[in-house]
Amino acid sequence: MPFHQPSKPRARRPATEARPYHHGDLRRVLIDAALQLAAEGAEVSVREAARRAAVSPGAPFRHFPNRDALMAAAAEEAQRRFRAEIDAALREAPAADPLARFRAFGLAYLRWAMRNPAHFEIISTGRYFAHGSSPDLTRDNAELISLTEQMLVDAAEQGLLRSVDLKRIQIAGRALVYGLARMNLDGHFPRWGVGEGEIERMAEGVIDLFIAGIAKP
């Protein structure tokens, strides 16, 4: 009797402690798994994310009750990384030159979208979930739109722009970078004679052409 009692609980404990994550990190592990699945072009589901995280199929549902909740969290993480790229580029751009900042914003957008095509797909289309269901995404997108708007207001006040139709310039700039990112995602550039190693350089040249077109000589 004295030997059998302590042996039972101790035989089970190591299996619990040997899990490859800490319980507080499970949410993060599942988000990373969802992003990885999307990057691989695989179907994203809560159960598949659980399999990648090496946990039981029911474990993730404490954090994500369904696929939409998981994808919303994955999109918010992708948006956070996207925003970090934008913020880093703007820190390097001259504060007193709004057109240089507008250019830096566009280049950072494209650079991130081209290097992270699956994550760009998550935050830019409704393929994975309804974007309006995430207040964080809605708020951050509104902030980015306001940021580009302010750059153009500052450029107009400094007399740097050919046109005073700032809304049209803003939408044209958005269409340009989004269109280039989408062309890359859909694999269009080779048919236009642009090799894989040339895409970012070509995109930079297109943005420079746009800036030259809206700027006063």
UniProtKB/TrEMBL annotation:
Domain HTH tetR-type: 24-82
Protein keywords: DNA-binding, Transcription, Transcription regulation
Source taxon at top rank: Bacteria
SUPFAM superfamilies documented for this protein: Homeodomain-like, Tetracyclin repressor-like, C-terminal domain
DNA-binding region residue numbers: 45-64
Protein name: AcrR family transcriptional regulator
Protein's organism: Bradyrhizobium yuanmingense
